[in-house]
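User: Reviewer 2 asked us to show a designed sequence for the structure in our supplementary figure. I'm pasting the structure tokens here. Could you produce the per-position amino acids so we can include them in the response letter?
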């Protein structure tokens, strides 16, 4: 059966209308990117939205700048271990995030634009 545009239109509308509802379900500042949501919920307070570590808490804890080559040159395995088990003042996330979620968040910080 050929695609009939008048049949597709209501479907598209329904999808578009359900997007804001989806976003609302997972909290006020939620986006449609689960990795971004994880970062916002668990990492942003110390590392900042841009990963610079330039936040009040980041300064107190001396949070690493996630876009710095010191961090970006590390392997995913190394970053995974630090996020999972913590390092100095960096808290461990093994009780809060699954291994899969840690990998998602690593993917997210790898995409932060360098400053
Ligand atoms: C309480 C503040 C705090 C929070 C919350 C926090 N971090 Fe950190 N993070 C730090 C500090 C402090 C360091 C520097 C650790 C060191 O090298 O001494 C750090 C370092 C790092 C590093 C660099 C590790 C390395 O070996 O150089 C990565 C990557 C990182 N954090 C990712 C994250 C991610 C992802 C989250 C959220 C799941 C997160 N952090 C949440 C404070 C925090």
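Assistant: Here is a per-position design you can include in the supplement:
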């Amino acid at each position: 059966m050929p695609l009939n545009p008048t049949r597709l239109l209501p479907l598209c509308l329904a999808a578009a209308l359900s997007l804001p509802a989806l976003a609302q379900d997972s909290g006020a500042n939620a986006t449609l990117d689960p990795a971004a949501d994880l970062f916002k919920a668990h990492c942003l307070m110390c590392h900042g939205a841009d990963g610079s570590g330039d936040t009040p808490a980041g300064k107190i804890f001396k949070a690493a700048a996630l876009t710095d080559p010191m961090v970006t040159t590390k392997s995913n395995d190394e970053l995974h271990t630090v996020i999972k088990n913590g390092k100095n003042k960096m808290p461990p996330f093994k009780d809060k995030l699954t291994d899969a979620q840690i990998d998602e968040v690593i993917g997210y910080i790898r995409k932060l634009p360098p400053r």
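For the response letter, you might also mention the following. The pocket of heme C is lined by residues 42-43, 45-47, 57, 61-64, 66, 70-71, 74, 79, 82-83, 87-91, 93, 105, 109 (CB under 6 Å). Confidence is low (pLDDT under 50) at residues 11-15, 17-26.
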